[in-house]
């Protein structure tokens, strides 16, 4: 693997279509914690099975709702960083040449000016009904509470994110797959590549012959299919590659 950041910059400039898959690391420089970083990642402090599954929510709705409420509060202070902004500027300048797919639920790509971002794992800033809403759920606003509940049937609001064991939004996954199918360069940025089906998008790009570039200060599960691994923070690397 001899190509470096200058080669990748040239590939990006020449590419017909670039697919980008981002993960939590792209927001690390905005102060948003990742999941799996050994010291600072959310899963270093919390057990995902006790927080990021539907069964955990049904068992302990207050605990899980509070954890998400805390993360929402933290996120309210976060701003897009130079990596988000570089991607957004590229998308604005070359709207037909970019498919931006994120696993992040923080809305920072959209906030940077890329509203077409495909959000595979939902949004931390939204919520929805846990069970299919009945007429009573929609005819009156949910009570204030933690979590909000329909006063008539007891249905709960839940965070609008995708938990383990849940299907990804079908339209988002289909749009991501279609964008990847068009790409000749794929940037895999700030993700450990451990979570599927998102990580499978990089394998699809590799199998169709696209150049795959991993941007991450650490090693990842996807390095073995990468043409190049750039061991840099994304807020430094992406502006160099795309501007
Ligand atoms: C930097 C940096 C800087 C730091 N610059 N980089 C196939 C094989 C095996 C398992 C499965 C499979 N298919 C499905 C599964 C099961 C499961 C899964 O993948 N499990 C694996 C973990 C083993 N997948 C699912 O359950 C998915 N659903 C599904 O497949 O449905 C079908 C189904 C139905 C029924 C039964 C089974 C299957 C859903 C996955 C949902 C993931 N949800 C979460 C939580 C969202 C809500 C919340 O926020 O609380 O999504 S988990 C968490 O991981 C979050 C993330 O989006 C996701 C990915 O994490 P990410 O972004 O990669 O973060 P990290 O922390 O892992 O990595 C950060 C990286 O950044 C690191 O590498 C750093 O080095 C780097 N970094 N600073 C650049 N400055």
UniProtKB/TrEMBL annotation:
PROSITE patterns for this protein: SIRTUIN
Keyword NAD (UniProt): yes
Species this chain originates from: Hydrogenophaga crassostreae
Location of the protein in the cell: Cytoplasm
GO terms for cellular component: cytoplasm
Name assigned to this protein: NAD-dependent protein deacylase
Entries under SUPFAM superfamilies matching the protein: DHS-like NAD/FAD-binding domain
Binding-site residues, substrate: 68, 71
Catalyses which reaction(s): N(6)-succinyl-L-lysyl-[protein] + NAD(+) + H2O = 2''-O-succinyl-ADP-D-ribose + nicotinamide + L-lysyl-[protein]; N(6)-acetyl-L-lysyl-[protein] + NAD(+) + H2O = 2''-O-acetyl-ADP-D-ribose + nicotinamide + L-lysyl-[protein]
Keywords of this entry: Cytoplasm, NAD, Transferase
EC number(s) stated in the UniProt entry for this protein: 2.3.1.286
Job description of the protein: NAD-dependent lysine deacetylase and desuccinylase that specifically removes acetyl and succinyl groups on target proteins. Modulates the activities of several proteins which are inactive in their acylated form.
Active site, per annotation: 121
Record-level Gene Ontology MF annotations: histone deacetylase activity, NAD-dependent; NAD+ binding; protein-malonyllysine demalonylase activity; protein-succinyllysine desuccinylase activity
Span of domain Deacetylase sirtuin-type: 1-243
Primary residence: cytoplasm
Family under the similarity heading: Belongs to the sirtuin family. Class III subfamily.
Stored InterPro entries: DHS-like_NAD/FAD-binding_dom, NAD-dep_sirtuin_deacylases, Sirtuin, Sirtuin_cat_small_dom_sf, Sirtuin_class_III, Ssirtuin_cat_dom
Binding-site residues for NAD(+), renumbered to this chain: 103-106, 190-192, 216-218, 234
Domain comment, as recorded: 2 residues (Tyr-68 and Arg-71) present in a large hydrophobic pocket are probably involved in substrate specificity. They are important for desuccinylation activity, but dispensable for deacetylation activity.
């Amino acid at each position: 693997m001899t190509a470096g950041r200058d080669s990748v910059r040239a590939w990006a400039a020449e590419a017909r279509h670039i697919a980008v898959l981002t993960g939590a690391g792209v927001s690390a420089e905005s102060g948003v914690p990742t999941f799996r970083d050994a010291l600072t990642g959310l899963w270093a402090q919390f057990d995902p099975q006790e927080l990021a599954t539907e069964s955990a929510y049904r068992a302990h709705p207050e605990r899980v709702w509070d954890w998400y409420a805390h993360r929402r509060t933290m996120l309210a202070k976060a701003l897009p960083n130079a990596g988000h902004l570089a991607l957004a500027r590229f998308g604005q300048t070359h709207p037909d040449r970019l498919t931006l797919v994120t696993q992040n639920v923080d809305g920072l790509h959209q906030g940077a000016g890329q509203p077409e971002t495909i959000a595979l794992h939902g949004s931390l800033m939204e919520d929805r009904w846990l069970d299919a809403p009945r007429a009573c759920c929609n005819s009156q606003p949910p009570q204030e509470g933690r979590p909000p509940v329909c006063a008539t049937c007891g249905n709960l609001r839940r965070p609008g994110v995708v938990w383990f064991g849940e299907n990804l939004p079908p339209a988002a996954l289909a749009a991501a797959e279609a964008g990847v199918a068009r790409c000749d360069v794929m940037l895999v940025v700030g993700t450990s590549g451990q979570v599927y089906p998102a990580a499978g998008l990089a394998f699809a790009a590799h199998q169709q012959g696209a150049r795959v570039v991993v941007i991450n200060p650490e090693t990842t599960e996807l390095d073995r299919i990468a043409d190049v691994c750039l061991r840099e923070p994304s807020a430094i690397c992406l502006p160099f590659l795309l501007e």
